[in-house]
Amino acid sequence: MRFPKIFHADLGNVHHAAFWLGFFGILSATLGLLRDRLLAGTFGASRELDIYYAAFRVPDFLYTILLLFTASTAIIPIFLKNFNEDKEKAAELLGSIIIYFSFALLVLSAVAFFFMPEFVKFSLPGFSEEDLGRTTLLSRILLLSPIFLGFSNIFSSVAQAFRRFFVYGLAPVFYNIGIILGISVFYNFFGLPGLAWGVALGALLHMALQIPSLRNVGVLPKFKEVKGRSELLKIMWLSLPRTLGLSITQFTTLILTGIASTFYQGSIAIFNLALNLEYIPVTIVGLSYSVAAFPNLVSFSLSKAKDDFRKHFSAAIRHIMFWTFPMAVLILVLRAQIVRVILGSGAFNWADTRLTAAALAILSLAIIFQSLFMLLVRAFYAEGESWRPLAINIVSALLSIGAAFWFSSEFSTGGVLADFFRTALKLDGIADLRVIALSLGIFIGGFFNFIFLFLAFRASFGWFPTDGIGRAIFQIISASLIVGLVSYWGLNVFSLFFNLHTFLGVFLQGFLAGILGILVFLGILWSLGNKELAEAYFSLRGLFKEKQKSREDMVPAPEPEKLL
Predict the structure, then answer these.
(1) What are the residue ranges of helices labelled H in 286-349?
(2) 394-400: Cβ within 8 A, 24+ apart
(3) 463: closest CA among 399, 402, 522, 383?
């Protein structure tokens, strides 16, 4: 296949599609780490970086609301249904989606633009007038991102419907390239607003890449008259649970950012940098398995095939645990090496590194709960229950915010609790631990969200999510704990051989300790005849053997859940 043609290739073979999506997913994540390294190295944990991250809150919220019109999981099945009936009907539906999305975008963007000073002032009580002014300017520039990404989501839904996954996978790479250009180039000319212009450029590139594929499939939107209102309402209804769920997450982040604005300068930056690192395994494992399992769960639910539903769900939850438990343990043990290698450069000093590593240590424990939450909530959606998990999400969000308030209050007065976390997280000499309260809030919210969903699952389905997989859970947890001990031992041993004052020395220490832990994990599970390990091996081996996959089996790739 010649390179230019691959942009419009029909990736009907699932493994070709999975390869390109996985490849570009890893490349995008790598560029995301480079992006964060450049930000940390340029600004350190400073008020400038606080302003940059805080400026995303309102545009992120706007983007989430607009997912009502742009969620690919809702657009694709309805679009394909119309296309199979009549190509013109599909083109008119696409035109209607764009018209209604544009109208909602115009109204909401205008409100956000003109009332941005009030939104920013209300949500960031700890910022000075000058800081609020700079945050307002960046937020207004960043309003371009929901516009471009919203249109990009609509266009990519059509491309995905025809299995044009190459460009969809490539788009996030160019999005991060735009952000990196903002940091490395635009900032030198425009100052802090240059960072926001870089994000806007990345979003524009994300959208622009979709347009040639849209033209290639031969379905261009028609705007002669607005049609398909019933289909549009159905799209909005299907998108509503996910939009509301993400809105609650954005609201929680908004409040936590406001709390952090009252702390010392750099707290918002430390919290976001740690959160970005923690979110990578959640996305790679939790979101991937949940999205992949969802279509079959829906099919089994509709056909009342309860045994198949349970079998498919159990397989997904076993494999999420198989990957996330050792990941969480390794991140917990190797947190200092991870932060030093990825972020430890330039203006990002030793105190910033220690606090970010401590925040990451707490967030590493949330990886498991957040990943399982993604699967549990989709099981409810498949069964047609969207409001129960939404209510649980609201309660959990309130617990998360309440815990962050309480811990920050306790840490501000010192005492036994502060001394405990200072010792446990190796923060001797750092007086103010309040930024750690934000990570504790995320962890507690995620933990109770999982517990409540776990119990509600029993009430809805008649069985617990972990029924029948106790042996697998015991094997995975036991092996993961041993991984932690072995990796910690490896850190101490390898520290004798490498210069830990250099980038290469820290990298090799953490890398070799992590590899040692992974090998022990695989060895233990292999000796136990672990089912998940065998399934993962045969799935990987069969990656290049399976020839075809039907259109009905293709899983829509999820659109971005936030701007950064």
Answers:
(1) 288-302, 306-333, 335-342
(2) 394/248, 395/448, 395/452, 396/445, 396/446, 396/448, 396/449, 396/452, 397/248, 397/249, 397/251, 397/252, 397/445, 399/444, 399/445, 399/448, 400/252, 400/256, 400/441, 400/442, 400/444, 400/445, 400/446
(3) 383
Residue identified by tokens 């005492």 is 415
Instruction: Report which of 33, 17, 104, 25 is spatially closest to residue 345, judged by C-alpha positions.
Output: 33
Contact 158, 214 (CB under 8 A): yes
Domain-embedded: residue 434:
yes
Instruction: Look at residue 255 and tell me if it is in a domain.
Output: yes
For residues 223-254, one letter each, b for 16 or more C-beta atoms within 10 angstroms of the residue's C-beta and e for the rest, the string is eeeebbeebbeebbebbbbbbbbbbbbbbbbb
pTM of the model: 0.86
Compute CA 73 distance to the chain's CA centroid, rounded to the nearest angstrom: 17
> How confident is residue 241, by pLDDT bands cut at 50, 70 and 90?
confident
Assign 346 to helix, strand or coil. coil
Same domain assignment for residues 228 and 186: yes
- Asked if residue 174 and residue 31 are part of one domain, the reply reads yes
Within 10 angstroms of residue 184's Cβ, the number of other Cβ atoms is 15
Q: Is 49 helix (H, G, I), strand (E, B) or coil?
A: helix
Q: Rounded to an integer, what distance in angstroms lies between the CA atom of residue 84 and that of residue 159?
A: 15
Reported as a pLDDT band with limits 50, 70 and 90, residue 1 is very low
DSSP letter string, 230-279 = HHHHHHHHHHHHHHHHHHHHHHHHHHHHHHHTTSSTTHHHHHHHHHHHHH
pLDDT digits (tens, 9 = 90+) for 78-121: 777 777 777 777 777 778 888 888 888 899 999 999 999 999 99
pLDDT of residue 341: 93
- For residue 320, what are its two tokens? 């999420």
Tell me the per-residue pLDDT of 351-371, one tens digit each, with 9 for 90 and over: 899 999 999 999 999 999 999
As a three-state string, the secondary structure of 87-122 is HHHHHHHHHHHHHHHHHHHHHHHHHHHHCHHHHHHH
Query: Could you give the CA distance from residue 332 to residue 22 in angstroms, rounded to a whole number?
Result: 25
Is the same domain home to 392 and 429? yes
Provide the residue range defining the domain that includes 330.
Answer: 263-470
Closest CA to 132 of 58, 45, 37, 35: 58
Break the chain down into helix, strand, coil percent, rounded to 5.
Answer: 80, 0, 20
Tokens of 65: 């609301």
> Closest by alpha carbon to 75, among 562, 560, 561, 559?
559
